[in-house]
Amino acid sequence: MTGGPLRLYELPLSGNCWKIRLCLAERGLPYERVTIRDPERTFADAAFRRLSPLGRVPVLVCPDGTALWESGAILTWLAENTPLLPRDATRRAQVMAWLFWEQADLSPALALPRFFRRNGTEKANAERMRALQEKGRACLEFLDTYLSRQDYLCGAAYTLADLACHVYVMLSPEGGQDLAPFPAVRAWLERIAARQAWEPLLPAG
Ligand SMILES: N[C@@H](CCC(=O)N[C@@H](CS)C(=O)NCC(=O)O)C(=O)O
């Protein structure tokens, strides 16, 4: 990576964008933060669509002008050649498994109920919300069993797997999840939040 500025297009309450800020902080990389204030207009804008073909955030614009989208791809790019993402193909695949699972199972089950609550469509989506919450609980049970045996998802060290997966778990009470029955998950979240580079979704106060 060259020393030029990185530019992150983001929404302040988005967990997917929070992941990228956390990874940038882990790397100690400076970046320009472009917070989108008018998402409906910006996401439909042709210039923005050239950066993000689906009209979503996060988008990270690299020093050479290349725009990266999909949080997992951006995280992988940022973590290259760091202990967050092993070079060894097998250990790397173990980390990637958690990134794929996060996108396919964990994030929809935990992020959508939060989204319905935030935008006031919880009642209109009541049935879907219940099904997602049940699926979310199953994901948390799976994580809790896993984390009762080891400190981090890929063993004794923090990796991109933990960075990517902990975000929507931490936000899940906003979507109605109760983390009380999952002590190993809560201990994992505390370990992660104690990291020097970790920062909350929003600044305190
Ligand atoms: N799988 C994508 C999901 C991106 C995504 O859904 N972003 C949301 C914010 S968290 C967004 O931009 N939504 C606007 C929209 O879909 O119109 C990723 O991980 O980057």
Number of helices: 8
Q: Work out the strand percent.
A: 5-15%
Order of helices and strands: EHEHHEEHHHHH
Which hetero compounds are present in the coordinates? glutathione
* Main pleated sheet: 4 strands, mixed
Percentage of residues assigned to helices: 40-55%
The end-to-end distance, rounded to whole angstroms, is: 35 Å
Q: In order across it, which strands form the biggest sheet?
A: 2-1-3-4
What multimeric state do the chains show?
single chain
| Tally of separate domains | 2
Backbone shape: globular
Q: What structural class do helix, strand and pairing data support?
A: alpha+beta
Mean pLDDT: 96
Indicate the CATH class of the largest domain. Mainly Alpha
CATH T-level topology of the largest domain: Glutathione S-transferase Yfyf (Class Pi), Chain A, domain 2
- CATH architecture of the largest domain, by name, is Up-down Bundle
**How many beta-strand segments?**
4
Radius of gyration, taken over Cα atoms and rounded to an integer in Å? 17 Å
Pfam families: GST_C, GST_N_2
Organism: Komagataeibacter rhaeticus
Keywords: Transferase
InterPro entries: Glutathione-S-Trfase_C-like, Glutathione-S-Trfase_C_sf, Glutathione_S-Trfase, Glutathione_S-Trfase_N, GST_C, Thioredoxin-like_sf
